[in-house]
Amino acid sequence: MLGTASMKGSGFMRWTVHGERQIYSNPWVNLWLVDVQQPDGRRWEHHVVRMRHLAVAAVVDDQKRVLMMWRHRFITDAWGWELPMGLIEPGETPVQAAAREVEEETGWRVEAMKPLVYAQPANGITDSEHHVFRADGATYTGPPTELNESDRIEWIALSEIRGMIDRREIVSSGSLVGLLYLLLDEATKSAD
């Protein structure tokens, strides 16, 4: 097993950035060409997608169920279960965004959230960050105000999540990271 010092590396494999230029921009995604030099001396322009960061909420109730949404993603033309999530707005903290998204997308309000896990889902091509939070419990406030987000909203038993992942009913990176961490937490609690 690698120790922390070993994981930091010697710095010999660090790529050098000589400059960058933006080639496309809009409020959601920006495409850049970055002039990089690899450790072997090869220098070339690498495409980098810069994106606004994402807040994800794993809301768990006292029956060990997680709040999830059944939704269609047009890009992959696929249906799947997802945790509530959305882009972090300017001036908003990741935890504020996560709480806002839960209520807008599901109609449930959380009172307190704590950091669950941080991830960079595709850091070889994008700078996207996923901030995943956990909330224990929520209060129903009414129907969701985001009407185009999901077909169904359900509380799903944590014990069913592994099978759903195996059947590819859950494929969203933000959801997978949060749910797998929840399952790891539950396994750790059971072992204690």
Give an overview of the whole structure.
The protein is α+β, with helices and mostly antiparallel strands and 192 residues long. It folds into two domains: 16-50, no CATH class; 54-190, Alpha-Beta Complex (Nucleoside Triphosphate Pyrophosphohydrolase). It is 24% helix and 39% strand. It has four helices and twelve strands, in the order αβββββββαβββββαα. The protein has helices at residues 4-8, 94-106, 158-166, 173-191; strands spanning 16-25, 29-37, 43-51, 54-60, 65-73, 78-82, 85-87, 108-109, 114-119, 130-136, 139-140, 152-157. A four-stranded mixed β-sheet has the order 7-4-10-9. α3 packs across α4. The radius of gyration is 19 Å and the shape is globular. The model has no long low-confidence stretch (mean pLDDT 92). Its cofactor is Mg(2+). InterPro entries: Nudix_hydrolase (IPR020476), NUDIX_hydrolase-like_dom_sf (IPR015797), NUDIX_hydrolase_CS (IPR020084), NUDIX_hydrolase_dom (IPR000086).
Instruction: Provide the helix percentage.
Output: 10-25%
Number of domains: 2
Report strand order across the widest sheet: 7-4-10-9
- How much β-strand is present in the residues? 35-45%
Architecture of the largest domain in CATH?
Alpha-Beta Complex
Q: Note the gap between the termini.
A: 23 Å
- Tertiary shape: globular
CATH level-1 class of the largest domain? Alpha Beta
- SSE string: HEEEEEEEHEEEEEHH
Largest beta-sheet details: 4 strands, mixed
What do we call the CATH homologous superfamily of the largest domain?
Nucleoside Triphosphate Pyrophosphohydrolase
Indicate the mean pLDDT: 92
CATH topology of the largest domain, what is it called? Answer: Nucleoside Triphosphate Pyrophosphohydrolase
